[in-house]
Amino acid sequence: MELQPSKILVVDDFRHNRIALNKVLQPLDNIELVEASSGSEALAKLINNEFALILLDVNMPNMDGYEVAELISSTQAHKHTPIVMLTAHDSSTKDIMRAYEVGAIDYLTKPIESTILLNKVKQFVKISQLQAKTNYLRSEREVILEAAGQGVIKFNSEGKVQFINSKACQLLQSDNDSLLGTQFNLWFKTAEREPCHDDLFLFLRTQANAQGIFQQRVTLYVEDNKTYLVELTCTSAKKQLDASMIVLFQDISDRLEMENRLIHLANYDTLTQLCNRGSFHEQLKRALGRAKRVKSTVALLFLDLDRFKQINDTLGHDVGDELLKGVAERLRLVLRESDIAGRLGGDEFAILLEDCHSSADAELVAKKLVDSIRKPFVLHGKEILIETSIGISCSDNGEHNITTLLKWADIALYAAKSAGRNCHQLFIPAMSAKAQKHAVIQSKLRKIIERDLLDVHYQGQYSLTEKRFVGFEALVRWPRNGFGKTPISPGLFIPIAEQSHLIHKLGIQTLKHACRLLQAWQSSTETQHLSIAVNLSAKQINSQDFLSTTQATLDQFSFPRAQLTFELTETAFLDNTENVVKTMNSLKDMGFMLALDDFGTGYSSLSYLQKLPLDILKIDQCFVQRLGQCDKTSALVKAIITIAQAHDMNVVAEGVETKLQLDCIEQLGCSKIQGYYFSKPIPVDLINGLLNPQVIPIKPKIDKPQHKSQVN
Fold first, then answer.
1. Domain 6-140: what homologous superfamily?
2. Which of 85, 132, 684, 694 is the most exposed place for a label (fewest CB within 10 A)?
3. CB-based contact 305:390 (threshold 8 Å)
């Protein structure tokens, strides 16, 4: 007999690894290599293929090798398929034992010796081919044995039953005597639309004679008009058996269920049961093709849960998973049955709306989704609030391709986040230009940070009682040389740094600049008293490694810790108040000073005075600039100063630009001043000139001040 090539499935998310394995195995004869770049793709390959061996990489995104092996081993059809796990050289005994527990029969570490791999695969292929030969001989010579696990019937040339085993009687729900002599077509039929419906027996006999062995799925009819699918394996009988054809058949309900399960696993997210990324993209591609044919509108919605990571970090992944399932259920409740929802990964979801009359329909759905998701979730006895930002893109008559539509929805999502989150934005062409501009800034900013080229300017804080500068605030600035003719405003590049997670490196570099200056000041009695304030963003504070990286940075420098102040704004509390308070207490325990910036402009300001170990309150410039113009403002500023003094805090007035503002703030009892009246933010090399007592107080030419960034 001529054996079919043995199939080997190579599963690895890195294409170069698959190419390397293929090259090693190329010398083997009579094999067919099949590749899969992910666990989901591997499961899909198993639906219609049988493999002699599966070479399975352990470390893959979304679904790792252990999960894939466990799913394969749990299926009836593939539980005996040999699996060899491939992983990095530093795998532990625990990793190896886990591989065997999930169904692997061998375990190889990278880099893999070509000779070892080749010999192992050769043995598995040999075993597989011997098994195939054995199976063939068994099906040819022993198919009519009574002990067969399948139904076995011998038909004569007229299609009448000559022999039937007990399993066939069981499947046909009748006895041997009743079945002998009955016609094949009485029990087995195909759908009326099939060309072989009129004489199925003749069709199968012809195919079996031509091919030797032929398989066909048909419907089995039993008593009381019950039907179920079976798979027939038909083979030409030898002449001495005095039969035209031998048929083996079995109930394939379990197999169909497993096939459907594998199809589901390959196309749906296992947590939320929504479409996965690959399946969603296929659905979107199909919808665009249909829209082009029928001249309809397709809308794509990208959803991203706002501040989901903080919930995961503080309440745990179990709660996070339950929340994702809850969000998926709310999507189903809002959407039509014909709409398609998918989970693209993490906390990112997508919605496909077909047959929209206009983009207004998509915006209406987006509004409903935002309103639905913002309602509280009750999980594990806790009420959890989450919000979502949504980006929308539309294609009329399918005129745009899938790549364009995905890109537009992503740009619109970014716009929704920039607009304050918890809202939706419909893509407009102007967004694309803005996104391109932001991408350019992000790229330049990344290079600036990598090369440590950030400029840090310092704005002085002047003490009216001591008649001298007592400190500075560090403010990060775009470098003036080499990255564009016009420096980019902090108000533009810092939000981009936060969106792209560059804010953490930016913050550390700014801190290093400040610490380096504080350390240098310790060498002179004229500068030993000076302090520096460094701003913190909410993203920095809520980062899990913020305290450790900050401590590691500070350990490189020597200066009194009380001369470094960390400033944060009230908006930093909106994301995760409990974590912010805990982090600030840790900084205080290290000996640093803490300041609340822009006091009075945020939310629940007074409550923070009770929660935080604050040393300084900074009066926001919006109050200072109205002094001398509004009695209510003066009363409010006086109240802030009184509150600070009652809590043993120092007060700094920001944004003082005129003599009138200076006189007013001094009369109200605030003695520390920051603003253009005394000093605009200046490079570090101009600080010595500013500290000269002969030029204090300074009245520089007042440039129109930029609104100070909330972060550095």
1. Response regulator (3.40.50.2300)
2. 694
3. no
As to burial, measured by CB atoms within 10 angstroms (0-12 exposed, 13-18 middle, 19+ buried), residue 487 is middle
Distance between CA 313 and CA 578 in Å, rounded? 12
Q: What would the pLDDT profile of 218-266 be if each residue is shown by its tens digit?
A: 888 877 777 888 888 888 875 545 557 888 888 888 888 888 888 888 8
Structure tokens at 474: 């560090």
CATH number belonging to domain 151-255: 3.30.450.20
Half-sphere exposure of 70 (CA within 13 A, CB side): 10
pLDDT one-digit tens code per residue, 691-702: 875 444 443 333
The C-alpha atoms of residue 201 and residue 162 are separated, in whole angstroms, by: 15
In the chain, CATH 3.20.20.450 covers 439-695
Distance CA 69, CA 518 (A): 57
For the sheet with 83-87, list strands across it.
31-36, 6-11, 53-57, 83-87, 106-109
Query: Which residues does residue 476 pair with via DSSP β-bridges, in sequence order?
Result: 456
What is the rounded CA–CA span in Å between residue 496 and residue 89? 39
Domain 268-427 has CATH 3.30.70.270: yes
Sign of CA dihedral 207, 213, 218, 221: positive
3-state SS string for 385-447: CCEEEEEEEEEECCCCCHHHHHHHHHHHHHHHHHCCCCCEEECCHHHHHHHHHHHHHHHHHHH
Contact predicate 86/112, CB 8 Å: yes
Query: φ and ψ at 571, to 5 degrees?
Result: -65, -20
| 348-365 confidence digits (pLDDT tens) | 999 999 988 888 999 999
Q: Which amino acid is at 628?
A: G
